[in-house]
Design brief:
With about 350 residues, this protein is an alpha+beta fold. It is about 35% helix and about 20% strand. It is built from eleven helices and twelve strands.
Length: about 350
């Protein structure tokens, strides 16, 4: 064993503690060694009691799994401080059933924390004032663990959910962030059934189940998860992603679409697709799309589809016609807005008569 091996083993262990599978080639590249050396180092970690699992095949890799005993963990300064602050919150009843365990774990951690880190923990804790929950609700630790695992592993998550009115529903989501505000936990996720971003109170969530199906990260609404959660809690306008296809070239549609709604992109079929984020009532966006003067089809979310249909019905009734079953269009009451129907003539460079 060379003198560099202990440091390399620590680096390898630090990588494996990330909740993902590492291909052997990627580990070799990160460590600056050969694949054969990686295999030897993996065997050494196993001898030290770390349960490293290997998958077979050309794309096989390594990951650290749960073993019979808890092996030592490697924590950097930031992680150690974060865990200490979190354990103090747990000791203050932030999560039900872990108060005593939090105190025991905190005692062990602070015993080995360097003095400089203990001072940081004390400073942070002094600046934190936890807000009591309005209804005294608490969350089982295993629920938080299941949600955090799905977020880290980018696995689709099923669960039962109870809304503020007591209505029960089943949700299939792509979990994005698990966040806390005051003494409540929230899951920010993309709801696949409703084709839009949603915020779920974790104390209203039950039976979480990670499906094992991985998903690619979606583009999150402007402002990030923290801003999205803040708006949700404060009752501000919810941001949602939308997708619309216009039966017109992107260059023409771009002249009628506000830049902050997004940039239309030609789809190769004579039309274009507009994707973006909007906030506020879906009815507002439906009106903006109708005012472009072009035929369009809503692809997502369902709320926008319903708003467009409602708008079409209102326009039709206002003109004395029968409500249309399909998506409403901008060409007058009862207009057929299906893809492929004729586009109205333009009236000048800005679309005005």
């Amino acid at each position: 064993m060379t003198t560099a091996t202990p440091a390399r083993l620590l680096q390898l262990l630090s990588l494996l503690q990330t909740p993902r599978e590492w291909p052997g080639g990627e580990l070799a590249e990160r460590l600056g060694v050969s694949r054969r050396t990686v295999r030897r180092d993996i065997d050494r970690l196993r001898e030290l009691g770390y349960p490293v699992e290997a998958s077979k095949g050309a794309d096989g890799g390594y990951r650290l799994v749960a073993g019979k005993a808890m092996p030592p963990l490697l924590l950097d300064d930031e992680e150690a401080v974060a865990i200490a602050v979190g354990l103090r919150a747990g000791a203050a009843h932030a999560v039900s059933g872990v108060e005593e365990a939090s105190v025991r774990a905190l005692a062990k951690l602070e015993q080995v924390l360097p003095a400089r880190l203990r001072r940081r923990v004390a400073t942070l804790q002094a600046a934190i004032t936890p807000l009591p929950g309005e209804d005294g609700t608490s969350i089982a630790p295993q629920t938080l663990t299941a949600l955090a695992g799905a977020v880290a592993g980018r696995e689709r998550l099923r669960f039962a959910y109870r809304d503020k009115d007591g209505g029960e529903s089943r949700r299939l989501t792509e979990p994005y962030r698990l966040m806390s505000a005051g003494r409540r936990w929230y899951l920010v996720a993309y709801d696949l059934d409703r084709a839009g971003w949603r915020t779920f109170r974790v104390d209203r969530l039950s039976e979480p189940f990670a499906t094992g199906v991985r998903f690619a990260a979606r583009e999150f609404p402007a402002g990030g998860a923290a801003e999205y959660l803040r708006r949700s809690i404060q009752g501000g306008p919810e941001t949602y992603a939308f997708e619309v296809r216009f039966a017109a070239p992107a260059e023409e549609v771009a002249e009628r679409v506000r830049a902050w709604l997004g940039t239309p992109v030609d789809d190769g079929g004579g039309g274009c697709v507009l994707r973006g984020d909007a906030s506020g009532p879906a009815e507002w966006l439906a009106v903006r799309l109708a005012l472009t003067g072009y035929e369009f089809t809503v692809r997502a979310p369902e709320e926008l589809t319903a708003a467009v249909r409602e708008l079409g019905g209102r326009l039709s009734r206002a003109g004395g016609g029968a409500p249309q079953d399909g998506p409403a269009g901008p060409h007058g009451p009862g207009a057929d807005v299906r893809e492929g129907s004729p586009r109205p003539p333009r009236h000048g460079p800005e679309g005005r008569p």
